[in-house]
Amino acid sequence: MKIAVVGTGYVGLVTATCLAELGHSVIGMDKDEAKIRIILSGRAPFYEPGLDELLASNLKKGHLRFSSDQAEAIRAAEVIFVCVGTPPQEDGSADMSQIEEVARMIAENLNGYKLVVEKSTVPVKTSFWIKRVMSSFKKSEHPFDVASNPEFLREGSGVGDFMSPDRVIIGVETERARDLLVRIYERFKDRIVITNIDTAELVKHASNSFLALKISFINMIADLCERTDADVEMVARGMGLDPRIGGSFLKAGLGYGGSCFPKDVKALAKIGSELGVDMTLLRDVDAINDDRIRIFMEKIRRALWILKGKTVGILGLAFKPETDDIREAPSIKVIRELLKQGAFLRLYDPKAASNMKELFPEDSQAVSYVASPYQAAQDAHILLILTEWEEFRTLDLARVKTLMANPILIDGRNVFDPAAVRALGFEYASIGRK
Ligand code: UDX
Fold first, then answer.
1. CA distance linking residue 152 with residue 340, whole number of Å
2. Using an 8 Å Cβ cutoff, are 335 and 360 in contact?
3. Architecture of the domain delimited by 2-195
4. Whose CA is nearest to atom 31 of ligand 1?
């Protein structure tokens, strides 16, 4: 069975490569010819652990191809996975223009039956619109189906999440579409859940919104802990021992970023409101998350009072560890606020620095990028942890202290043990802990 994957971003490239790894013949495509050239050299245009190796090996096997000629790829395939972006718009709704463009392109190249599979996270009822667009633009009488097969890939563990899924949700409305997708995911047949299309679309938005809710919940509890002698890490541990709650996604800190949670929570709240449902709960999830930056900046001001002219070392720029992605990263808002206050920044991240340079280019004094955490600490009046990269846990803090102008450490991801850091002579603040 020939499969096409439209879009070679964090979702599309992992999907194309892993479908090839499952033994399918796959053609990935993207309008961006430069991206295709990088991919054809066996490298992903972004950091994703394990992806380069899998990409190179499947390119070599010959059943994984990439092209920027989208029409050719569409015509060659029977099943088309749509993995293009659905970025947030000002009003919180998802921008569906890329999905609509792909639907039109498939309709114009309908040289036989096609199954169009929504892989991107899309608002419920999207399949209705795809069907409408394709029916009005199609140039032939060939039949087609639409299906929803949402991805549950986390950046930094995308390959593992695809190759050992908790569940494969298949939202279909015909047996032909169901049979094709069951064949594609044959290896995971014990984890396939067949639903209608609306249900599958909603599983994705509901799952991401629930995970975001857990994070905002523990951050609300962290705010409570800061006004008592409670320790949010211990509260999370005590809660998580209840299997009905579970310990994951209860890490208090700077809140969630990335290309999914912020967008999905807003999109679901908007969809629900438009359908007449009270979505206050999700708006509060969003508001609690946004408030993390104000609270973190308060900690910095409490430590330094005046930020103007101060040197601030920043460890961690990516929205989370094990990725170079800075989309909606809390670091962006912190950096913007610090620059507004006239601080001088020394930025370090093992993977995401080049992406951040596009937003905040290096300039003489205010913004410099350094090659190690120790260089970020050099002459700094304060050091901030914004992303919990593993390498920060094993920092030689005694050495960091000798490098700093002031031994002040504000830990936005609760990486360190407060007593141990203070014993070294640091003034230390973190989230939801004394
Ligand atoms: C998420 C979902 O996990 C994944 O299933 C979906 O397919 C895409 O969206 P991703 O956005 O890549 O994946 O990262 P994730 O690991 O979920 O973290 C999202 C954000 O939440 C990060 O900014 C992370 O720092 C933050 N987070 C996560 C917390 O603040 N606390 C936690 O306990 C967990």
1. 37
2. yes
3. 3-Layer(aba) Sandwich (3.40)
4. 251
Q: Which residue is associated with the tokens 């599979």?
A: 117
CA distance 369 to 165: 37
In this prediction, the residues of the chain whose per-residue pLDDT falls under 50 are none
pTM of the model: 0.95
Left if phi > 0, otherwise alpha if psi is -120 to 50, otherwise beta: which for 406? beta
* Domains 2-195 and 204-290 fall in the same CATH topology: no
The residues lining ligand 1, judged by C-beta closer than 6 Å to any ligand atom, are: 151-155, 208, 211, 215, 249-251, 253, 255-258, 260-261, 319-320
- What pLDDT does 359 receive? 97
Task: Name the residue ranges covered by the structural domains of the chain.
Answer: 2-195, 204-290, 292-429
Minimum CA distance residue for ligand 1 atom 24: 256
Task: Report the separation in Å between the CA atom of 342 and the middle of ligand 1, taken as the mean of its atom positions.
Answer: 31
Q: Are 254 and 386 contacting, i.e. CB atoms less than 8 angstroms apart?
A: yes
pLDDT score of 41: 94
Closest CA to 413 of 318, 312, 271, 301: 318
What the block records as the tokens of 419 is 């007593």
Minimum-distance ligand 1 atom for the alpha carbon of 153 = 7
- Catalytic residue IDs: 260
Q: Is-contact 13 52, C-beta < 8 A?
A: no
pLDDT digits (tens, 9 = 90+) for 258-281: 999 999 999 999 999 999 999 999
- Report, at the CATH architecture level, how domain 292-429 is classified: 3-Layer(aba) Sandwich (3.40)
CB atoms near residue 263 (< 10 Å): 23
| Ligand 1 atom 25: residue of nearest CA | 320
Fold for domain 204-290? N-(1-d-carboxylethyl)-l-norvaline Dehydrogenase; domain 2 (1.10.1040)
Quote the pLDDT of residue 93. Answer: 86
Q: Which atom from ligand 1 is nearest to the alpha carbon of 253?
A: 30
Amino acid identity, position 396:
D
Task: Decide if 85 contacts 7 (C-beta within 8 A).
Answer: yes
Work out which ligand 1 atom sits closest to the CA atom of 121. 7
Ligand 1 pocket test: which of 249, 327, 387 has the largest number of ligand atoms within 8 Å of its C-beta? 249
